[in-house]
Amino acid sequence: MKDVAARAGVGLKTVSRVVNEEPGVTPDTVARVQSAIDALGFRRNDSARLLRTRRTASVGLVLEDLADPFYGALSRAVEDVARAHGALLFTGSSAENPRREQELVLAFCARRVDGLVVVPAGDDHRYLTPEIDAGVATVFVDRPAGRIDADVVLTDNAGGTRTGVAHLIAHGHRRIGFIGDQPGIHTAGERLRGYREAMADAGLPVRPDWYAMGPTTPERVRAALATMLSGPEPVTALFAGNNRVTVTAVRVLSGRPQPVALVGFDDFELADLLDPPVTVVAQDPAGLGRNAAQLLFRRLDGATSEEPSRVELPARLIARGSGEIPPAY
Amino acid sequence: MKDVAARAGVGLKTVSRVVNEEPGVTPDTVARVQSAIDALGFRRNDSARLLRTRRTASVGLVLEDLADPFYGALSRAVEDVARAHGALLFTGSSAENPRREQELVLAFCARRVDGLVVVPAGDDHRYLTPEIDAGVATVFVDRPAGRIDADVVLTDNAGGTRTGVAHLIAHGHRRIGFIGDQPGIHTAGERLRGYREAMADAGLPVRPDWYAMGPTTPERVRAALATMLSGPEPVTALFAGNNRVTVTAVRVLSGRPQPVALVGFDDFELADLLDPPVTVVAQDPAGLGRNAAQLLFRRLDGATSEEPSRVELPARLIARGSGEIPPAY
């Protein structure tokens, strides 16, 4: 950090602000500090850090699936913050399998990573207590840890879903379906709660065949949607619980003669070019990754209180067309 | 491997076949071997491997950008093969910066990875020779190494582009534009070559304002397309050199009164639901990652000749509508 400050001709405080992406630094200064960091490179940071702190300058990131664009954006943001701190990144996909999550986490710990950023698949993280006690900084992201107190960075899933469902209600819908991910997944449960709350707030009933939770495979989503659209009280609108569900719902609904309104949780590329353009409740995957990694490095710098932090990012409704379709009957 | 074979009740040869995804094993046996691998877990494999070979059971993957869905799919495939071999994965994004590529590669080597899978940003990899000589298995993917002989897994970029441009010619186009990535990038150069060859094969000229190479930012693609569509001999069709270009081209062309035919290199999600559905030349990012990682582990097992291998995967035309639009004038 001192070398960077000297090379960029700024104070240590400024370097720290740039690295932590804090406000109050002019773009010109940011560029100067970045280029000093680039010029001095990883390896030098690395060796210095290792000598000074006996750290390994590496971080482990466990997420659900590297091939999912949501986690791609989250990973890249974690990587960028790690890089600014001279740390390398291990990544691994749990595929929603709690045992695989645990294997990856413990394998990363065996390599003596300084810290972990974890999108948990499981709901019991007591296995991590010895590692955290031994000094491995750990921040959970997207979903909270289970049965331990730990830092977490989340989206306001229930609030975002309430907003999206209330939007459909405001456009005249009374029979609204919800298709979500597996009920054991925290985000899926929170979004279902938001759906129920929005319906209750409007004094609307929720029939048992109007919501379906389970794997987000195309087959399962197709079957759930077919049920909702064919019962005695078919839905006139759907809230899709994540981008995998939305993509399949778009396919199914585009083939139907009668329009069905659709709001999806998570934005996705080209949503605005579909017919109709897809209304979404957008979260910020890069923001989740960035906040989690910044919290992790603040922990490693000892710059935070002992109490676990909980950061909650808002979700934002983007009205584009599909969510503003009135009820067909 | 012995433990896995015993637990699954199969021979060592069968375990090796499953791990290397070779044919000749029934799905039932694959499932049995996989579940034995899962049950025995990473850590055990890890320690055994370390004891036996003094390896670190880790692999470094350097790519352009973790947040790009193409590299997300490639990464996940590398991770899956690494996992089957009990190895963990370091990942890093070069952001098309040769110095950052080198920093990442050398940082991974400093952590003593057993092997590297590299999507090169630079065109001179002589800096890697000492590492390769020291035993770090290295496979390049998507683009070849520069100034050293090394293993590489590629898509047939020129051939795929020739097919796509010939398809436009077969639908009556004579003035066809090409927008590609920066000319220093191997894949970009190969695709430009394929475009030129297809035009030459059909006896068609290529005007200098019909092709444009450079960063694939939306602004640059918009400007290049505007030039091609407004000159004295405007193009009636466009070949988009990668999925970033295609996405921007779809946006620009959807706002025009006169249809322009479009074929894009790289498939992308929802391409079939756009209006018109987008015709693409699809490569197989997971296949690139899988082949590269399998080659890497064959090298680590000493199961290959000394000669560097070159694997070329085909690209496949998927006609969906946008590439079959006739010339507007």
Automatic annotation (TrEMBL), chains A, B:
SUPFAM superfamilies (UniProt xref): lambda repressor-like DNA-binding domains, Periplasmic binding protein-like I
GO molecular function, one term: transcription cis-regulatory region binding
Entry-linked PANTHER family: HTH-TYPE TRANSCRIPTIONAL REGULATOR GALS (PTHR30146:SF109), LACI-RELATED TRANSCRIPTIONAL REPRESSOR (PTHR30146)
UniProt cross-references to Pfam families, sorted A to Z: LacI (PF00356), Peripla_BP_3 (PF13377)
Protein name: Transcriptional regulator, LacI family
Domain HTH lacI-type: 1-53
Keywords: DNA-binding, Transcription, Transcription regulation
Organism: Actinacidiphila bryophytorum
Gene3D superfamilies: 3.40.50.2300, lambda repressor-like DNA-binding domains (1.10.260.40)
